[in-house]
Amino acid sequence: MRAVVFENYGEFPSLTEVPKPEPGPGEVLLRVAGAGACHSDISVYRVFEEGQPGAQKPPFVLGHENAGWVESVGPGVSERVRVGAAYMVYGPIGCQHCRKCAAGLETYCENAATMPYLAVGLGRDGGMAEYMTVPERHLIPLGDADPVAAAPLADAGLTPYHAIKQALPHLDGGGRYALVIGLGGLGQIGVQILRALSGATVIATDVKEEARARAEANGAITVGAGERQAEQIRELTGGRGADTVFDFVGAGPTVSTAAASVAQGGRVSVVGIAGGTHEFSFFTNPYESYVTNTYWGSVGELWEVVDMYKAGQIRPDIERFSMDDALEAYRKLEAGEVNGRAVVVP
Ligand code: NAD
Ligand code: ZN
C-alpha cells in the first residue's frame, strides 16, 4: 500500500510503498478515511534531531489525526467493535499501567520515557496510508458522522478542547474575553469550541487575512498582526486585557503578544511548539496571572469532541488531498498556504 513516510531526520517525507499492516492482539485494521496534516509533523521531520526531547525515531508513517472504517480485527478484540463501521482514532499511546493512562490521559504517561513511541504517526505508523492498525481501546464510534472531516479533530479538535476546558473557570461570568492567536488547523476549531462552551467574546488574530475572515465567520472579532496588535486587543477588552489567551503558534512574537494581552488574574496557554519564550517576574506580568503549556488531551475528552462534532457545534474546515497529492499537502502547510486543515483521503 502507499504511505507518507518520514525516513530521515531533517528530510521532507516520501510517498512510498510499504507492506499492508496486520492487526496484533487487541488491535484493529482500519481502512483510513482521512488523515489530517498537522503543523507538528513539520517539527517532527524538519526540526527535531536524534535524542532531542520530542524527537521520534524514523522511519514511520506520518499521520496522527485519523478516522476510518474497521476492515478486520486482531485476536481478542471485543465483539462490540463493528467491522465496516466508522471510528475516530485517539492517537496517544501510553503504557496502560500508570495513573495517567488509567485516567485516559495517555499523553502524560508516567512511563513515556521507556515507551517505543508516543502515538500513532509519532514513532509508530500513523494514518497517512491506505491502512493502519490501532489498539481497540483507541476507537471512538462516529456513527453516521462523516469520517473524512472528523479526522483532524483527533488533534486539531482535541488539543484546543483540552486547553479550553482547563481555562473555563476564567471565562465564568459575564463580560469575559478569550484571545486566540494563530488561526490555522487548531485555532479555527479553538474559536468554534470557545463559542460553544463559553459566553466569552472571542478575539482572534493571525497574520493571514484569509484566516481572520474564517474566524469572523465563526463569530470572532479579529485583529491584524501589525505593530498596534496588543494595544488593539486591550482596547477591545475595555483596557482590562483577555481573561484567557490561547497561543496556537508559540513563537517569540506570539508569546509576547499573549503576555501583553492577558488580564490581571488571567491565564495564558501556550499550545504552539515554535519555542518562543517570555520572562515571568513580579514586574513583567499582570498580578495573579498564569502561564501554562499543554499537550494534546485525554481519550474521554475526544469522546466529548466527537459529541460536539455530531451535534454540529464543531465544523472542521478541510481541504482534501488525494494520496497522489499527499506531499503537496505538506508543501502547502510549510508554505502557510493551507486554508483550515489539509486532509489526505487515501
Ligand atoms: P497551522 O499551520 O495550521 O496554523 C498556524 C497558523 O498560525 C497559521 O494560520 C499562520 O498564519 C499563523 N501564524 C504563524 N505565525 C504567526 C504570528 N506570528 N502571528 C499570528 N499568527 C501566526 O498550524 P496548526 O496545525 O494549527 O498548529 C499550530 C501550532 O500548534 C504548531 O506549533 C503545532 O506544532 C502546535 N501543536 C501543538 C499541539 C499540542 O499538543 N501542544 C498539538 C498540535 C499542534
Ligand atoms: Zn502510562
3D structure, described in words:
This protein is of the alpha/beta class and 346 residues long. It folds into two domains: 203 residues, Quinone Oxidoreductase, Chain A, domain 1; 136 residues, 3-Layer(aba) Sandwich (Rossmann fold), CATH 3.40.50.720. It is 25% helix and 25% strand. It has ten helices and 18 strands. The radius of gyration is 20 Å and the shape is globular. Zinc ion (ZN) binds next to helix 2.
Q: Estimate the strand proportion.
A: 25-35%
The count of β-strands is 18
Termini Cα gap: 10 Å
What is the CATH level 1 assignment of the largest domain? Alpha Beta
The radius of gyration over CA amounts to 20 Å
Domain unit count = 2
Elements, N to C (H/E) = EEEHEEEHEEEEHHEHEHEHEHEEHEHE
Looking at the overall shape, the CATH architecture of the largest domain is Alpha-Beta Complex
The secondary structure category is: alpha/beta
Which segments are poorly predicted (pLDDT under 50) over 5 or more consecutive residues? none
User: What's the CATH H-level homologous superfamily of the largest domain?
Assistant: Medium-chain alcohol dehydrogenases, catalytic domain
Helix content: 25-40%
CATH fold call of the largest domain: Quinone Oxidoreductase, Chain A, domain 1
Largest sheet: 7 strands, mixed
